């Protein structure tokens, strides 16, 4: 059986954006929540790398928030083809409220090598025109997963 490894291009693809916080790194995905102390638009992203283990291999990713899912996919591809899938969503997180979400990969005739899930605050013009300070807008990005 072949031993598949991440290459340099995969590592670059999996890098979390500079202004984002890593929520999860592994192969399976996560189910967690985020909250903010003031209204904030938050971008949640997922990147996943895998390899087709037979012809027709696909790698998909999904982010589910409030019963809605955003999905991305790479493939179908020939056996031993490197696969990369990504997806992102933006959600308005109201002050003091938790937004629960799931993010993870799906593989069909493919092996997931690594998946990262991240969150980043997006500049948000509050209805009254007030802007959060840089320190306030980059507070705790996510709560730890519940076990």
Explain this structure to me?
This protein is mainly beta. It has a single domain, classed as Jelly Rolls, CATH 2.60.120. 7% of the residues lie in helices and 53% in strands. It is built from 2 helices and 8 strands. The protein has helices at residues 8-13, 134-137; strands at residues 21-26, 30-34, 40-52, 57-65, 68-77, 82-93, 99-108, 110-122. Strands 1-8-3-6 form a 4-stranded antiparallel sheet, with no helix packed on it. A 4-stranded antiparallel sheet has the order 2-7-4-5, with no helix packed on it. The longest helix is centred in the first third of the chain and has 6 residues, at 8-13. It is elongated and about 55 Å long. 27% of the residues are buried. The model is unreliable at 130-147 (pLDDT under 50).
Cα separation of the termini: 34 Å
Uncertain residue ranges: 130-147
Look up the CATH topology.
Jelly Rolls
Overall CATH architecture:
Sandwich
Q: Which structural class fits the helix and strand makeup?
A: mainly beta
Descriptive tags:
Jelly Rolls, 147 residues, elongated, four-stranded antiparallel sheet
In short:
With 147 residues, this protein is mainly β. It has helices spanning 8-13, 134-137, and strands at residues 21-26, 30-34, 40-52, 57-65, 68-77, 82-93, 99-108, 110-122.
């Amino acid at each position: 059986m072949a031993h598949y490894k991440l290459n340099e291009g995969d590592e670059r693809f999996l890098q979390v954006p500079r202004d984002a916080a890593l929520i999860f790194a592994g192969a399976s995905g996560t189910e967690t929540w985020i909250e903010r102390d003031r209204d904030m638009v938050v971008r949640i992203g997922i990147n996943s790398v895998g390899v087709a283990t037979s012809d027709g291999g696909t790698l998909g990713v999904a982010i589910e928030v409030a019963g809605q899912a955003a999905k991305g996919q790479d493939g179908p591809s020939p056996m031993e083809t490197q696969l990369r899938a990504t997806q992102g969503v933006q959600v308005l997180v109201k002050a003091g409220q938790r937004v629960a979400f799931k993010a993870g990969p799906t593989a069909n005739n493919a092996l997931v090598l690594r998946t990262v899930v991240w969150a980043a605050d997006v500049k948000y013009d509050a209805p009254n025109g007030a802007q959060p300070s840089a320190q306030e807008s980059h507070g705790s990005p996510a709560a730890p997963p519940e076990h």
